[in-house]
Design goal:
mainly alpha
Length: 188
């Protein structure tokens, strides 16, 4: 649903409340007026994103992904402050299926902005893991340090320690030759 349709619904509900109050149904007018708060709330906090957070909290990633897939055009359906969380949630739901899709979603989430520090820390940690996977140790080290600064409650301490341990390991190139085959030449 387009985000501005919610304001049309609010206008209709306010008109209905005023109509009820003028026809001596003041109690029902007040009830309808109080119910106008829900479309206003859903303008700033999209119902699909709220449901996706609910299912992620319950560890049901597939259902969270289904709710996010209902958002066809995020710019017309979401308020600007939700763009970052949309990309953040899309990255988290697609992380298990295809880890390669995680990095662009997390970069966009940080670009649009995340309100909570621990959300920014988790997005940065995911970017550090992606950089480490690509062999970019300097970038990964910088992102891990940034994650450590953002993680004030030490919720990601174990993951940060694990990534720092992986930084100490030597690079393993994809096309590394068998060490037992080093002395063999082309004609040997």
């Amino acid at each position: 649903m387009n985000k501005y349709i919610k304001f049309v619904i609010v206008g209709v509900m306010v008109a209905l409340a005023v109509y009820l109050m003028f026809n001596r149904n003041i109690g029902w007018g007040i009830v309808v007026l109080l119910l106008t708060a829900s479309p206003i709330l859903l303008f700033f906090k999209n119902e699909y994103i709220l449901m996706a957070f609910w299912y992620l909290r319950k560890q049901n990633i597939e259902r969270a992904g289904e709710w996010l897939d209902r958002i066809k055009n995020y710019k017309s359906q979401l308020y600007k402050s939700q763009y970052g969380y949309y990309h953040y949630l899309m990255g988290l739901t697609h992380a298990q299926d295809s880890p390669a899709k995680l990095e662009p979603y997390m970069r966009k989430a940080l670009e649009y902005g995340l309100n909570m520090k621990h959300d920014r820390a988790l997005a940065t940690l995911n970017l550090a893991a992606a950089a480490l996977q690509k062999g970019k140790k300097q970038e990964a080290k910088m992102l891990i340090d940034e994650t450590k600064k953002l993680d004030t409650s030490d919720m990601l301490g174990d993951q940060i320690k694990m990534l720092r341990d992986q930084l100490k390991l030597p690079n393993m190139q994809k096309h590394m030759h068998n060490p037992y085959m080093r002395n063999r030449g082309k004609f040997h």
